[in-house]
């Protein structure tokens, strides 16, 4: 199986954009050297006139969101930032938008509503070109919050965190399909979404669950190798060793019962392999890169 040549960066939302109040976070990293937006720039690499396109299709306030990212990247010395304000499927496949997609080195899907994002882009030529570039080129696809949740073939599209351990209270639907057998949840610790991800994995135990806290993410290389980045934690939920799971036998609204889930908690620069389901840690990651 040929691995994708591109990179994915999935972010849990509320990433540091260089604002003064964000520097007050207890675990904040240096915005200019370690921040997630800096990591995106580093991953693009040395290109002649590199260009990032911010895609705000998930947002109901696209102009405001687009300006926020332009200002944040400008603080990092990155000026060539475009804003693709896609508001319809026809617009996604317009000649102008597709030409800009072909010319950029990176796209960044903003936060908002992942169902809105997928309904606008699912089945479009825009999405086909994006997937092809990710598979065949050194092309970077970043997504934050809704933009991260939508990266996999199956995504969480809703659910009440306070009732997440009751069958049927977590909603799943099709995502954009850059990742297979992975389910991503965002704002993970800030909004108490562990139970939400557990139910998602209980219903699809062949998948790996990735819980991304705010200002935290993963860089995904070759479609399988995750490296944690950012100031908080990444939680991996693996259902492959489940010994008991009642979700198929109970009625909607009843509490689920799951035994022997494997949970891994990662912090900045830790590495995890989706294919082997193995935590490799920082030391091994450095060894692989040397």
Residue share in helix: 25-40%
CATH architecture: 3-Layer(aba) Sandwich
Distance between the termini: 25 Å
* Major pleated sheet: 9 strands, mixed
Give average pLDDT, whole number. Answer: 94
The tally of helices reads 9
Beta-strand percent range? 25-35%
The CATH topology turns out to be: Rossmann fold
Order of helices and strands: EHEHEHHEHHEHEEEHEEEEEEEEEH
Shape: globular
What does this protein structure show overall?
By secondary structure, the chain is of the alpha/beta class. The protein has one domain: Class I glutamine amidotransferase (GATase) domain (Rossmann fold). It is built from nine helices and 17 strands. A nine-stranded mixed beta sheet has the order 3-2-4-5-1-10-11-16-17, with helices on both faces. It has a four-stranded mixed beta sheet with strand order 8-9-12-15, with helices on one face. A two-stranded antiparallel ribbon has the order 6-7. Strand 10 and strand 11 form a beta hairpin. The C terminus is likely disordered.
